[in-house]
Design a protein that fits this description.
- This protein is of the alpha/beta class and 607 residues long.
- The protein has 19 helices and 27 strands.
- An eight-stranded antiparallel beta sheet has the order 3-2-4-1-10-9-11-15, with helices on one face. It has a seven-stranded antiparallel beta sheet with strand order 5-6-7-8-12-13-14, with helices on one face.
- The two termini are 30 Å apart.
- Bound molecules: 2-deoxy-2-amino glucitol-6-phosphate (AGP).
- The site of 2-deoxy-2-amino glucitol-6-phosphate has 15 residues, from α9.
Length: 607
């Protein structure tokens, strides 16, 4: 997820662009850049790191002009370097764009363009700008429309061309773009945040729409160059709310991001025809993959619970013995690791010291070591010999939600890739892919229940203890739910395999020690149901996560959250969401600092 800002009007553009980028820093902060139209020539400045680095650079520059585009990057293709920073010029140096999104077919497009165009960066965006140039014959809007007909993937882009110095053209498919209107001045941005200081009158571009702004006029078209009528809306958010897209906290925004970023995680990595997945970053030959006899997943906290779910996927789909190790334990237990072992380091930040130390230990012992990481160019991403980025976008709340979901998604895809190489049929792979493609819609149906879940939280907000129960693949989900509750509401929460309660922990239960249990319809449903009956017999309050239509659930619980069914292997992608929402509302009701809970940090870079 990146941040785009553009301006065309009668004020100096640079201060507007820099201030706008600062409002979008939450969307990405690997690198930033600006390009301005100065007397029919485009001048550009870029810098790695935070926006203040770019701002420093502009102070020594002679950048001027009242038309410009700007970008803050969250790297998806290509490392964190100045060369990869936006804006990107076409080879002629007359056309420049900023882009947010993923061009899936950029490699094949680059092959077609490389005869006539030179590529200096590793980005898909530089391919896109030269594709537009290849269609340019004096009309920038038409060139953008023609080029986008050849693109697969997502984009929010703004372009300007020195042969049409009083014009901006923007287009949207899958990545948001908002146009702010203030008489004959126009602001374009990834969201409303950068323009609220100037105007609250906006239009929201829809997918497949192109907008041309020139000489104080704005017109909107579709990709067939047919005119589209747009209605001007009024933004009610204040600045701070806008940064959170209107959500009260980043955590809630990131919970709601999950359907979209899940699609980003699997986009371009599945092949329905062959019933398989292909994650290019694995950097292993088929023979090396077939030779793997053991997988170890190392991580901390929430990432370790995602890893526990990955264990089920690798063992069920690929038949490879898989173990999960908390990183801080792995390095001190003298792990038995060799060149037939594949170690995955799973980390949102890519900077967790314990996980990084475990990576170094595993490499020292000769294992294949790969990363499943969110932050591009992070230390773990750089020190592993390959792996995949989870494309969750910046996750700013300390409590991890969308990164966890995408970690599970990526490990499921890896398990499918190994499984299809070793033992599962195309039909089995296709069934899994079909179920994966249904996940975003099912996530959305759960997110619609937020108000009902909030009502349940209101009933339990005075609880001082909570027990989370799950069996099989839902035990790691119970662990994740208990961690979410304890880390943001500070309520004591434990998690156990439901079958373990009768071996001691059930002694804890009482009417003041409620249970949150996962009882979705899988192979362990009846067993779990018996465990819940044992709990109920101790006069304990029970909240159940159950599948739609399960009439038994009402008899077993004080409160039931019904969710859509899915394949057992994919249940954590859905079952975890109500637990995230419940923990969020408990923390809000208790007036805790949801995004910045006490004693915690987003990235634990100390051992
Ligand atoms: C989860 O909500 C916590 N923020 C914490 O457990 C986190 O998952 C853990 O510190 C690992 O962080 P990483 O994924 O950045 O390595």
């Amino acid at each position: 997820m990146c941040g785009i800002v553009a301006y065309i009007g009668n004020k100096p553009a640079l201060p507007i662009l820099i201030k706008g980028l600062r409002r979008l820093e939450y969307r990405g902060y690997d690198s930033a850049g600006v390009a301005l139209m100065c007397d029919r020539k485009i001048e550009r400045l870029r810098s790695v790191g935070k926006i203040e680095n770019l701002e420093e650079k502009t102070k020594d520059s002679c950048l001027s002009g009242n038309i410009g585009i700007a970008h803050t990057r969250w790297a998806t293709h290509g490392g964190v370097t100045e060369e990869n920073a936006h804006p990107h010029f076409s080879t002629s140096g007359k056309l420049v764009i900023v882009h947010n999104g993923i061009i899936e077919n950029y490699r094949e497009l680059r092959e077609k363009l490389k005869e006539k165009f030179e590529f200096k960066s590793e980005t898909d965006t530089e391919v896109l700008v030269n594709l537009i140039e290849s269609h340019y014959d004096g009309d920038l809007r038409l060139a953008v429309e023609k080029a986008l007909l050849h693109v697969r993937g997502t984009y929010g882009l703004v372009a300007m061309h020195s042969d049409e110095p009083d014009k901006l053209v923007a287009a949207r498919l899958g990545s948001p773009l908002v146009v702010g209107i203030d008489e004959d001045e126009f602001y374009i941005a990834s969201d409303a945040t950068p323009m609220l200081a100037y105007t609250k009158k906006v239009i929201f571009l829809e997918d497949g729409e192109v907008v041309e702004i020139s000489n104080g006029k704005m017109e909107t078209f579709n990709l067939k160059d047919e005119s589209v009528t747009k209605c001007v809306e009024e933004i009610e958010w204040d600045d701070e709310q806008a940064e959170k897209q209107g959500y009260d906290h980043f955590m809630l925004k990131e919970i709601y991001d999950q359907p979209t970023v899940f699609e980003d995680a699997i986009r371009g990595r599945i092949n329905m025809g062959d019933g398989t997945a292909h994650l290019g970053g694995l950097n292993m030959t088929d023979d090396e993959m077939r030779g793997i006899e053991r997988i170890i997943l190392i991580a901390c906290g929430t990432a370790s619970y995602a890893a526990m779910i990955g264990k089920y996927a690798f063992e069920r789909l690929a038949g490879i013995p898989t173990e999960v190790d908390v990183a801080s334990e792995f390095r001190y237990r003298d792990p038995i690791v060799n060149d037939k072992t594949l170690v995955f380091a799973i980390s949102q930040s890519g900077e967790t010291a314990d996980t990084l130390a475990a990576v170094r230990e595993a490499k020292r012992k000769g294992a294949f070591v790969r990363g499943v990481v969110n932050v591009v160019g992070s230390t773990i991403a750089r020190e592993t010999d390959g792996g995949s980025y989870i494309h969750a976008g910046p996750e700013l709340a300390v409590a991890s939600t969308k990164a966890y979901t995408n970690m599970v998604a990526i490990m499921t895809l890896y398990a499918l890739q190994f499984g299809r190489l070793k033992r599962i049929t195309p039909a089995t792979g296709q069934r899994l892919i079909k179920a994966l493609l249904e996940i975003p819609e099912k996530m959305n149906s759960i997110l619609k229940q937020t108000d009902e879940i909030k009502k349940i939280a209101e009933k339990y907000k005075d609880s001082r203890d909570f027990m989370y129960l799950g069996r099989g693949i839902n035990f790691p989900v119970a662990l994740e739910g208990s961690l979410k509750l304890k880390e943001i509401s500070y309520i004591h929460a434990e998690a156990y395999p439901a079958g373990e309660m009768k071996h001691g922990p059930i002694a804890l239960l009482s009417p003041e020690f409620p249970v949150f249990a996962l009882m979705t319809k899988n192979q362990l449903y009846e067993k779990t149901r018996s465990n819940i009956e044992e709990v109920r017999a101790r006069d304990t309050k029970v909240i159940l996560i159950a599948n739609e239509g399960d009439e038994n659930a009402k008899e077993l619980a004080d409160d039931v959250i019904y969710i859509p069914p899915t394949m057992e292997l994919l249940e954590p992608l859905l079952n975890t969401i109500p637990l995230q929402i419940f923990a969020y509302h408990m923390a809000v009701l208790l007036e805790k600092d949801v995004d910045r809970p006490r004693n915690l940090a987003k990235s634990v870079t100390v051992e």
